[in-house]
Amino acid sequence: MTAVRIGEVAERVGVSARTLRYYGELGLLVPSEHSSGGARRYTEGDVARLQRIRELQELLGFDLLEIGEILRGEDRLAGIRGEWSEASLPRRRQILEEAGAINLRLRELVGAKQARLAGMLGELEDRARLYRVRAGELAAEEQDGPQLS
Amino acid sequence: MTAVRIGEVAERVGVSARTLRYYGELGLLVPSEHSSGGARRYTEGDVARLQRIRELQELLGFDLLEIGEILRGEDRLAGIRGEWSEASLPRRRQILEEAGAINLRLRELVGAKQARLAGMLGELEDRARLYRVRAGELAAEEQDGPQLS
DNA sequence: TCCGCAGTTTACGTCAACGTTAACTTTGTG
DNA sequence: CACAAAGTTAACGTTGACGTAAACTGCGGA
Q: Is B104 in the same domain as B137?
């Protein structure tokens, strides 16, 4: 079902093919399909997963090991062909709670980042105002006494 | 005036002393004072600069070279003992415009990050809702047919 | 059927941002 | 002033996240 080759995924998402193979090595992103000859074929779900990985990396600053743990926690819950389907009720509850804990942690982290970014933006805007004042002073000087010294 | 030693700065900000010396090597953060024996003494301004460096690194993801360029741009404007004071009017205008350009770029970048984070938070909240539904189903099953199979 | 491009594995290379160790010096407190 | 704790320079080591090169294979169009 419209599974796409590695080069196209790489270009679309803005990473190298090497990066995709590397994620494969780490078990982060194993393509869901393969051609008869053994070439990787990525589904849309795979691409979404890749973008998730990149967000966790670039926005939240996780390294690839941490990202692996996060994804594996969620995978267990999604449980396509995983543990969920045949798990006992207590086990299901455990998986669900783990995924919930990860989710909570991520939401807190995003919140913290947003707060810090908001603070930073405030400072930047203060500086921008200052710059405008300075520019005004400069214009006055240029108008006022162009060649005084 | 209450300039502090490298170890204390390191502990307060949460970096290693090695990191501070490294930033010194790169010209990113040269301590404003030194003891008579040659030991680094950091002022409050230095500490603020360090925190700025860390924000640019951790929040915006710049590498240390880019951070150096940003800081140097702003330094010229601050011009403690720099170019500003003795610069010609056109030169001053140029410096001011460069600093303004950097400031604008940073504000745009912060805005972009905020947008991406907001999107991510939305997805995380969706998932959290899903988890609560799942937990509800699970509770019903546990209540309903505890030992059916 | 042949060609060329895209993909594959294997393996070594790279680079930023520090960590670590060694040998030595300063600092400041009893 | 002695001495432990903290700092200094110089140099080499480490690590994650890929980049790059070589040698080989599969696949779609003329």
A: yes
CB nearest B138 (choices: A93, A117, A146): A93
**SS3 at position B40:** strand
Largest CA distance in chain A: 87
B71 and B142 part of one domain: yes
Contacts of A55 in chain B (CB under 8 A): 116, 120
Burial A99-120 (b: 16+ CB within 10 A, else e): bbebbeebbebbeebbeebeeb
Shared domain for A137 and A93, answered yes or no, is yes
Task: Count the neighbouring beta carbons within 10 Å of the beta carbon of residue A90.
Answer: 10
Give A121's contacts in chain B (Cβ within 8 Å).
107, 110-111, 114
B3 and B26 part of one domain:
yes
ipTM: 0.90
Considering the entire predicted model, what is its pTM? Answer: 0.91
Kindly report, residue by residue over A35-60, the tens digit of the pLDDT: 999 999 999 999 999 999 999 999 99
- Stretches where chain B sits below pLDDT 50 are 148-149
Residues A67 and A50 placed together within one structural domain of the fold: no
Residue B41 contacts residue B79 (beta carbons within 8 Å):
no
